[in-house]
Amino acid sequence: MTAPTNYAQLTGTYTLDPTHTRIGFVARHAMVTKVRGAFNEFTGTARIDGENPEKSSATVSIKANSIDTRNADRDAHLRSNDFLQMDEHPEITFTSTEIKQTGEDTFDVTGDLTIKGVTKQVTIPFTYEGTAQDPFGNTRVGFEGLTVINRKDYGITWNAALETGGVLVSDKVTLEFEVSAVKNA
């Protein structure tokens, strides 16, 4: 993997590779441990302007019912009206509104995150991880980022009090993005 000497050579439109990309989350459970999960079905496009990164853009659409925490009962509860209401709101979306280069290989991607029909602006700091040619001759780029949201901001308010004090599910949820995207021909 070699980093380009300048970002100009990255200019183009890229498609997220769902088999090499992870869109995950972490929430505290019972105040003592973390539950990790991911969404297994999503699509996304990034338009990179290497000479003017602020003219770049990104969109992602996630199937809410593809939530996977490696526990079928918990996943069913997360899909229910207590949490994601996936029958009414089958998709979680993100559309960038601003991209700002903050360092040599870091970028703040700000945009509209819509969960359960509620749209809020979030900023996700991303690190450019590099570029590579894959065995099929495709140009791949990698980015990683994470941000913390409050699920209550999106109308996800279900919880249960614990006998020992505290609650079953934290309000704060960390969203994790490990992105591999392939340059379109």
TrEMBL record:
Write down the species: Amycolatopsis sacchari
Q: Lipid/polyisoprenoid-binding YceI-like domain: which residues?
A: 13-182
Gene3D superfamilies xref list: Lipid/polyisoprenoid-binding, YceI-like (2.40.128.110)
What protein name is recorded for this chain?
Polyisoprenoid-binding protein YceI
Superkingdom of the source species: Bacteria
Q: Which InterPro entries match?
A: Lipid/polyisoprenoid-bd_YceI (IPR007372), TTHA0802/YceI-like_sf (IPR036761)
Q: Which family does it belong to?
A: Belongs to the UPF0312 family.
